[in-house]
Amino acid sequence: MSTSFFQKQSFFYLYLLLIFSGPVLLYWRDAWWPDAIGTFSLSIYLQNLAFEFIFFTAFALTLGVENRINVDPKGISLKRFGHVVEFIGWEELEKVYRSNKKIELIVVFESKDRVKKIPIYYSSTKHFKIIYEVCQDEKIRNMLEDLKFLK
After folding, report:
1. Rounded to the nearest 5 degrees, what angle is found at the Cα of 8, between the Cα atoms of 137 and 145?
2. How many other CB atoms sit within 10 Å of the CB of residue 84?
């Protein structure tokens, strides 16, 4: 059983949103600038789509849509653009502690042997529940319960 926190479907849904929001933005533009009411220009529609595509793609990449946390029976891995950036196995995770530093919206797990940082977003407890369900090791489950995110 393997689970990803962020699926590549996010981009698919983002592009669907872009395509269908184009006419809405054109309607708002017509409402703000009345001299353009009643005229539909395909080139303006395509310009709006291009602007939305660039804006939302930059926004999505800034938020790290492609940064995925994969949880499987081997451990937790951080993948960025399809490549494994960092991996912590369940055996190694037994030695892991939660650092006291909370950087914005992430909790950073660091191994004691060498620094391995995997961001786990704690704005939602869903991610910790996924780790809890996939990992069968009681020590790790107790550690996650101690983090108080599984309420």
Report:
1. 25
2. 10
Helices (H), the chain: 9-32, 42-63, 90-93, 126-134, 138-146
Amino acid identity, position 33: W
pTM of this structure: 0.40
Token pair 């001299």 in the structure block, residue = 35
The DSSP H or E segment spanning 106 is: strand 106-110
* Residues 95-144: tens digit of each pLDDT: 554 544 443 334 455 544 455 556 555 445 555 666 666 666 676 667 66
d(CA 113, CA 61): 31
* Cα–Cα distance, 17 to 14 (Å, whole number): 5
